[in-house]
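User: Can you recover a sequence for this backbone? Please restate the input before giving your answer.

Assistant: Of course. Working from this structure:
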């Protein structure tokens, strides 16, 4: 018997809908506040939740994701008194099943429910997929579970997949897992790092060339697309592919045929495409920097990997597992971890995600030396400062945060930072106070700039070392250096 929850502050709607659902052999419960509804969805395994937008204690649209991840991961149908296109877009983007107006007849209101129930029945009855091979991917938070569901779906099909997510969230790891779990798993997995393709060589690297096609081409060479024949071609950082190559690639995707440079005949390659990006490709397409038609082709299936700060439940597992892996690799005893170590990790927001976490853990293991236990004191300063700032601002209200961060900015220095500044610059000439948000943003920008300047000096502009220390990817580092205006000193 299907279980349905109606979250609406209007008792009449709840009664009418519930009466209809009971006639349809469903179990129906109601909640008249968002808080009560979310609590019920977390406690009971509902199949579908009807959710009103305007609730006395908040906007229903803000809770769609939480509801989708609760209990039996119900489908959510938005019911609204006043529909608007923006709300509809937001609802669908956050994973709602459908968005309907309350003015519709009760019959129309239950139609999406019937489809959602059918979908869930079919999903449940579908042939169970082979157990996924995903030993390398750590995490069991509800958000990661949704990603694993998508991974299983992608592995079972041959459609193109686009994996999105911030730097260091595991996009390449997922791409490999899709390949290994697919029928192509025994063939080659060819990685193309679109950010590192030299513009002048991009065509020959992708499509190959004949002998004598250009100066220096003393023998014929297969390109990466040919090498992926029968296997998977992984286009990493696909947002960096030059526009001219996007056009050529679109054709290859449509026809699976291309002409190596200098060749008379076209050749074919039967590959499966997986692409990844940390850019907003929709925005790039709107700005004319990415081809819309290519984007359609890339994302038959999309998997979005959430940033680490949104799945704190995974921090513990990732930390323990990586510390064990390090102990094995370095041939040292497994260390204990004190609670203050985990506490510090939880207070940091991990802009470099899992890559940054692993890097920090390596530093902590080194700092721990022969100590059998890792304490917060073994963590890099930046992590411990984040924890101190957080606990101070919680104790004294948010106003303190600005002062602490600004003090940190002064302390951190950086080669071009002023020697000493007051905790914050103070009101402007007319005595106007800026917003706290503006003060924080300015202070963070100053810290970031100072950090990058010092880091690049420290590694003598060795990009590989800078990436390893900061936990940023190459593109991430280049983008931040550009944004902060940090360049090599003459
Ligand atoms: N869930 C995870 N479990 C285990 N290791 C992970 C996980 N996510 C990321 N990593 C590790 O973090 C590092 C970065 O992962 P990966 O290269 O897949 O990220 P990415 O999203 O492709 O980054 P970028 O966009 O910067 O290329 C790798 O060492 C990878 O093994």
């Amino acid at each position: 018997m299907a279980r349905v929850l109606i979250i609406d502050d209007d008792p009449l709607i709840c009664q009418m809908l519930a009466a209809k659902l009971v006639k349809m052999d469903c179990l129906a419960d109601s909640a008249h506040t968002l808080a009560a509804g979310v609590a019920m969805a977390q406690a009971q395994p509902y199949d579908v939740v009807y959710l009103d937008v305007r609730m006395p204690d908040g906007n229903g649209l803000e809770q769609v994701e939480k509801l989708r991840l609760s209990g039996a991961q119900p489908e959510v149908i938005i019911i609204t008194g006043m529909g608007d296109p923006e709300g509809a877009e937001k609802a669908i983007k956050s994973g709602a099943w459908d968005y309907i107006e309350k003015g519709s007849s009760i019959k129309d209101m239950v139609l999406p429910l019937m489809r959602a129930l059918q979908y869930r029945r079919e999903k449940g009855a579908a042939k169970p997929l082979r157990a996924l091979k995903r030993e390398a991917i750590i995490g069991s938070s509800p958000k990661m579970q949704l990603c694993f569901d998508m991974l299983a779906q992608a592995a079972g099909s041959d459609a193109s997949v686009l994996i999105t997510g911030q730097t260091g969230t595991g996009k390449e790891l997922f791409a490999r897992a899709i390949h290994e779990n697919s029928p192509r798993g025994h063939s080659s997995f060819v990685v193309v790092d679109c950010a590192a393709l030299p513009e002048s060589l991009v065509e020959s690297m992708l499509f190959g060339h004949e002998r004598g096609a250009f100066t220096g081409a003393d023998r014929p060479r297969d390109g990466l697309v040919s090498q992926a024949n029968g296997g998977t071609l992984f286009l990493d950082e696909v947002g960096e592919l030059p526009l001219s190559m996007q056009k050529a690639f679109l054709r290859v995707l449509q026809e699976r045929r291309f002409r190596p440079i200098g060749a008379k005949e076209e050749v074919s390659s039967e590959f499966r495409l997986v692409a990844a990006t940390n850019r907003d490709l929709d925005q790039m397409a709107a700005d004319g920097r990415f081809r819309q038609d290519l984007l359609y082709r890339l994302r038959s299936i999309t998997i979005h990997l959430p940033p680490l700060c949104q799945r704190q439940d995974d921090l513990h597992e990732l930390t323990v597992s990586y510390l064990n892996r390090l102990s094995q690799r370095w041939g040292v005893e497994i260390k204990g971890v004190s609670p203050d170590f985990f506490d510090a990790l939880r207070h940091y927001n991990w802009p470099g995600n899992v890559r940054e976490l692993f890097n920090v853990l390596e530093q902590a293991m080194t700092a721990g030396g022969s100590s059998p236990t890792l304490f917060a004191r073994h963590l890099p300063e930046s992590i411990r400062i984040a924890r101190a700032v957080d606990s101070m601002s919680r104790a004294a209200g948010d106003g303190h945060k600005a002062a602490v961060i600004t003090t940190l900015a002064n302390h951190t220095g950086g080669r071009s930072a002023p020697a000493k500044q007051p905790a914050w610059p103070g009101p402007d000439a007319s005595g106007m106070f800026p917003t706290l948000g503006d003060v924080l943003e300015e202070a963070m920008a100053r810290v970031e700039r100072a950090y990058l300047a010092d880091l690049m000096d420290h590694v003598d502009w060795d990009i590989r070392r800078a990436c390893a220390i900061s936990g940023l990817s190459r593109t991430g580092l280049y983008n931040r250096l550009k944004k902060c205006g940090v360049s090599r000193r003459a």
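That completes the design. The pocket of adenosine-5'-triphosphate is lined by residues 137-139, 165, 167-173, 236, 276, 278, 354-355, 358, 473, 476 (CB under 6 Å).
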